[in-house]
Amino acid sequence: MIGKRAPSQTIAIAGAGLIGLSCALELSARGHDITLFDPRPAEMSTGWAAAGMIAPAYELMLQPGPVDNAFAAFCFESARLWSSFAKLIKLQTGSPVALSKAPTLALARNTQEQARLDALADLLRDLGHACQRVSDRTLQNQHGISSSVLNGLRLPEDTHVDNRRVIGAVRRYFSVEGRVIASAVSTRSEMEALSDKTFDAIIWARGTAETGSKTEVKGQAISLSPVPGQPSNVLRFGARYIVPKADRTIIGATTEPDFIGKGIDPSVADLLHEEAARVLPQLASADRLEHWAGFRPLGSAERPFIGPKAGREFIATAHYRNGVLLAPATAKLIADQVEGLNYESAYNVFAPAPGHGATA
């Protein structure tokens, strides 16, 4: 991912969640001096609450309105970048991040979902991306899927990574080097006073603080104990997913734009577990390990804000449900912009409108 080496800069990043850390790692690997600011522990970040899906194909089906070619291209580019990004994380931190190569299986539980998968298959072929039909018998015999599932679609470009390993490894790397300052900041002068540095560039990556609207969408998820013999593939069905990890299986997620309160609802955990077990019956006996709520920053039309502001300041936020997917491409795009390198002009659509950000 590392591009042409540019003169070293001293750069501050407000926000040490997945997006801020990804930008920090990319810029540090390019030879820049990075300082991160975040008062929260890693476990409080939006990326920690995610399931780790890298899903450019399935995301096409979830997007509102007609296909946005720039956004689709950005999603598929970022999915391709994950292999080199995972290698960079291991090279810099010494920690592997469990990037899976197993393709996602998108499942149809009824005729409506089957029609949506048919439309997705046609769209992927039109865009030049692969997918393969999977029969109900194959799903049952090879993956243990319930006989109630009609059929499926194999999505080879949709995979997953252990997002908590990513965040933990990169956060530890910068913390050990003394480059994470546990303070909330909202201005350049605060950053420079706390760090005793003069910054050439500032990157704001604090979630809703940068969106202008402060809109969040709540999502509840659970994790279960791993079950012997369960498939290594991510399973997608409607708005739900089953994501296998080495030490847990994640089931999610609700979408609650008009939530009241940030707590969890025990009945939601029961619902998620029951829905997952109807698709993958062996999960019925799995122990429930965790139940949590995450809060996804939402931008206009579900698009991220990535790009420059005035005065050598940049924004990288509002990735909504695609923070994990878009982390490598966001880091590369921000790094290219900070260094003044050429980048895909179509990605200018992600640039923040005037007035967004901490210093607006």
From TrEMBL:
Domain of life: Bacteria
Pfam families: DAO
Presence of keyword Oxidoreductase: yes
Domain FAD dependent oxidoreductase stretches: 11-336
GO molecular function: oxidoreductase activity
Stored Gene3D superfamilies: D-Amino Acid Oxidase, subunit A, domain 2, FAD/NAD(P)-binding domain
PROSITE patterns xrefs: PROKAR_LIPOPROTEIN
GO cellular component: cytoplasm
Keywords: Oxidoreductase
The protein's name: FAD-dependent oxidoreductase
Native source species: Henriciella barbarensis
